[in-house]
Amino acid sequence: MVALGSTSQTYLVANLHYVNEPLVNMREHPSHASKIVSQALFAEEVTICEKKNAWSLIKTSEGYSGWVFNDGIVSRQDVYSHQIMTSRLNATIYKEKDIEYGPMKILPYGSKLNRIDMEDPRWYKVVLPDNCEGYIQKGDAGIEPPLVSQAELVYFSQKFLGIPYIWGGRSSFGYDCSGFVQMLYNQMGILLPRDSKEQIQDPRFKDIPLNTIEAGDLIFFGKSREKIMHVGLFLGNNQFIHTSIRENMPWVRISRLSDFEWSGHVDAYYPFRAARQLVSTR
Q: Would you state the torsion angle of the CA atoms of residues 117, 70, 59, 39, taken in this order, to the nearest 10 degrees?
């Protein structure tokens, strides 16, 4: 650990750092009263850029930065490897191979786990980033599934219907619009930028006329192209899946492009719409 500059700023260079909670909220400033900008998820490797009292300024692999409470981050001298991932929207880790003792942690979908024993017919034994051991039922986790096609993504996306909208959300505990679309495209091996205003500028996509939009394409909404505020995944048949607080329905849901709210009408909240289609995976 090497300290640079003032005593309130410590830059760590010796260790690897991982999220050890189901998720940690990343904030604009080192305070619980500060706005959330994003989330870092369980077993995600992060870079610690600065420490201030009980807070750390972290950067995720996608380049997003924010302040998190230190308790959610652990340091390791070695890489946290994983062989399985959670396959349910909520998956429980137990301290013992017995559900009657209650959960050790409840993890969101896609959480990576280091499996150290699989002999039991019901349980995987796992070790967490902080080296604590636990157990997860085999019905709640498995090997990482193969990448899906854009057509398959349409059906996959609908398993998340009804999950709450959460500002900055990136997990099955709650998504925001761009976090939801980012997670979906990740199932195809495509890592999108974090925010919708950046996603619309992704050079791997091209603009297409709305009347040529296909299932799996992205549909963006905003005040103008320079003020993009929302994104969803087109499903076909004039429908798209997304998450939003609009219409007093703060959850993942399916809407129609012909609905006034999403029509791009000059008097709608989002008078601008744009369709974008993936043309390159590089």
A: 70
